[in-house]
Amino acid sequence: MTIDIKKLKTDLAYWLEVAPEGATHCQPDPEADFFWYNHDERAALSKRSGRWCYSHSGEFYWATLIPRPSPAWDGSGLPPVGVECEVCTAQRWVAAKILYIDGRHCIAIGADQSGASTHYKTQKTQFRPIKTEKERVVEWAMDAANFGENMRRGIEALYDAGALKMPGGEV
Question: What's the N-to-C CA distance of the chain in angstroms?
Fold first, then answer.
């Protein structure tokens, strides 16, 4: 069976269809001796024996592997692990990727790739899906012109027609 690596990177349903149970990562080179990996167990699936075995690979190697795609999140409830979203901290929305979440705590890494993990307490934290460029432009235009909600469809139509963009190329 030939595996579509490009599809594997983004399509969770495809991943679940072709990946063995427990796989959290895969090797981008399908010819490698070990193709499937489980980061939590620090294990790799041997093509020869078909068994999971301990992986001595360091974090640098793990960073070269393809992670299982994140599940979709519609903005309701808490975001699942792996989702890129926005987190509100001190009245400011910050793009982040959720690394760990339970009922009380959240660990996320900022989208600025600074490498610093940030700990948030979920009872005081709000989450929202990352807004599309269109949503950001429409909100900016509504705020800038002080329009009411009844103007939103007209502004969206202007954006769709290519007549409305964020000033200065901001996104």
Answer: 41
Q: CA nearest 108: which of 94, 119, 123? A: 119
Look at residues 58, 48, 12, 20 and name the one whose alpha carbon lies nearest to residue 36.
Answer: 20
Strands in 34-38's sheet, in edge-to-edge order, are 52-54, 43-46, 34-38, 25-26, 66-67
Alpha-carbon gap, residue 88 to 169, rounded angstroms = 24
How do the domains of the chain map onto residue ranges?
5-67, 84-129, 133-169
Structure token pair of residue 41: 């167990």
C-beta separation of 46 from 39 below 8 A: no
pLDDT in tens, 88-139: 877 777 777 777 777 666 777 775 545 556 666 555 568 888 888 888 888 8
> Cα separation of 167 and 87, whole Å?
25
CA atoms within 13 A on the CB side of 55: 26
Q: Enter the DSSP assignment of 129.
A: E
Non-local CB neighbours of 147 within 8 Å, separated by 6+ positions: 141, 155
pTM over 0.70, yes/no: no
Place of tokens 């269109």: 134
Residue 171's pLDDT band, with cuts at 50, 70 and 90, is very low
